[in-house]
Amino acid sequence: MPKGRISTRERIVLAALRLFSEKGYLGATTKEISAESGVAEVTLFRHFPSKESLLREVLSTYTFLPALLEILPSVEAMPYEKALSEIARRFIETLRLRKDLVKIMHSECHLYPEKIKGVQNAFLTELLDILAGFFKSRRKMGDLKNFDEFLAARLFLSMFYQYFITKEVLCLGLVSNYSDDSVIEGYVNIFSRGTKK
Amino acid sequence: MPKGRISTRERIVLAALRLFSEKGYLGATTKEISAESGVAEVTLFRHFPSKESLLREVLSTYTFLPALLEILPSVEAMPYEKALSEIARRFIETLRLRKDLVKIMHSECHLYPEKIKGVQNAFLTELLDILAGFFKSRRKMGDLKNFDEFLAARLFLSMFYQYFITKEVLCLGLVSNYSDDSVIEGYVNIFSRGTKK
DNA sequence: ATATAATGTTAGTAAGCACTTACAAACTCA
DNA sequence: TGAGTTTGTAAGTGCTTACTAACATTATAT
Q: What's the Å distance between residue B81 CA and nucleotide D6 C1'?
């Protein structure tokens, strides 16, 4: 093991994260990845038996969905619209922190398959269930109309996920005039009026 | 040129569309593409000087955004919610018809670059402007609240685009219990109440 | 029927890929 | 210091890739 610094293995995983997200899994070569991490190519293969195992390590190391689960409990006391805005804000913030990983998930996920897809599906369902629970508890407080909470949760996250992808991954300039805050305000405005009594 | 049948060139483009969408641009080989189209590999290179030029042909041939532009004029006479549902339904229908292309755009678009991105951006902006115009005219009829129409247009399409991608491209089972119609109903319900007076 | 164009067959190139082997150098820690 | 671990260097494997050259075969059209 090295000194107090970042380990060779971690440097490789970090470089792989960067290059996979930039060029895709097939587009990033093991040569590049090792160069980017400042090690010899053979060292990469001493830590990971194959390129695919490196991808798996990247995905499992930098998974961000647990971070998303922490958002919801922290907004319980807020009024409805304020809570929605805060959820959206922190959701986007989390995606931005893990932008490289989001890029990988976005573009490669339908190619590399069932095992990873299962993990994703489980986390996402959990996240949606918790958000749906938030809507249920709010409705008990008498604020909201009747609607399918799970579907509403899906809608809510879709709105902001798509906003993030378009802006940060696809880099389409469509909303260049809109700040995060103004988009959040506009979206939350419509959504909250659509779900309140 | 061949008989009344589909030309060799078209067969190659069709096969490329299929394989690019299934395996990605780098993942699909020219050998596979030529085999899939039933021609010799060398024939592919007689029609297209390079693999990249084939990709460009695929993208420009099967672009579907013009089809989307035709949706809006046809719903002008309908009541608000009915019109929204119809727009959503035909939007999803169009995406499904061009599913292969949507897959390519979805996964490769941030890799292959500025020229294509410009075309996309222009089409999308046009589409959003037209949808924004729809909201403006509805508000003149006194149905709607005040809101940023362009932002609302973006929100509306985002909702259903993300629904489509999750279901048909990522194949995440999240909404397996929901039919297209029930998702459209649920989403449109929230959106229309959020934008009506 | 014959000239022209489109395609097939075969063989090949040069480059890049993931991945390996063998050995020497450096670092870690007792 | 010395033993063990981790890394680097160098060379190379076998495979696949996009792409080409030369020539034979088929289809089309007048």
A: 67
